[in-house]
Amino acid sequence: MQLTTLNAKARVAGSSRESGRVRKTGNIPAVYYGNGSEAISVSVSEKDLEAVLAPGKRYTLLDLVIDGKGGNPAIVYQYQKNNISQKILHIDFLKIDANTPVAVRIPVRLSGIPVGVKNQGGSLSQESHYLKLSAKPADIPASIELDISEMPTNTTYYAEKLDLGKASLVSPKRTVIFTISKGRAAEAAATGEAAAATGDKKKEEPKKEPKKEAKKK
């Protein structure tokens, strides 16, 4: 299991004021826990963390070097951001084992313009942007990539159809990833054609002559 080094400093867990002081020094308060071990409060450099959280590196396997001591395998499990500035306020590092699957939240990325949109006037809607998977650390994908170029209209694509490699799906199997529905113009055209066909059929039907009453003797 190849690990990327990330330096950290042990700290004493305290109040939000103490966490604020940590942030003012250019560091992010964090905690390292998992596999039944006691949680350790640490802080990491904001700049170093940005490199770890760069696009495509969300689940980089880390060796958290705490006060110069390595041998602390981890992944970024979750973090909290400021709603306005989008700066990270706190981060959780999860202790990992090479042979123990980890539940992680992975982004779903669609590529290509569907046939149903390009040629059939349909409308694409991505319903799920993340899925929860379970995988051993080395098998965690950076993202789930799905080429939808050949997808026609009237398509509803479920999570159970995805190729996840060695990972397994934790989210419900019937989680909708995307839909391609008929556009309004296409629906209107189809409705118009159906109405026209019905009208023509009615025109073609011969008129029935009224039955003549039998003459009374």
Structure summarized in a few sentences:
The chain is an alpha+beta fold and 217 residues long. It contains 4 helices and 13 strands.
Spatial order of the strands in the main sheet? 1-3-2-6-5-4
CATH superfamily of the largest domain: Ribosomal Protein L25, Chain P
- Globally, the shape reads elongated
**Helix residue percentage:** 10-25%
Largest sheet, in brief, is: 6 strands, mixed, barrel
Portion of residues in beta strands equals 35-45%
CATH architecture of the largest domain: Beta Barrel
CATH fold-level label of the largest domain: Ribosomal Protein L25, Chain P
How many separate helices? 4
Low-confidence stretches: none
What is the top-level CATH class of the largest domain?
A: Mainly Beta
Calculate the mean pLDDT score and round it: 84
Q: Radius of gyration in whole Å, from Cα?
A: 30 Å
The SSE order reads: EHEEHEEEEHEEEEEEH
Number of domains: 2
Class by SSE composition:
alpha+beta
Ends distance: 108 Å
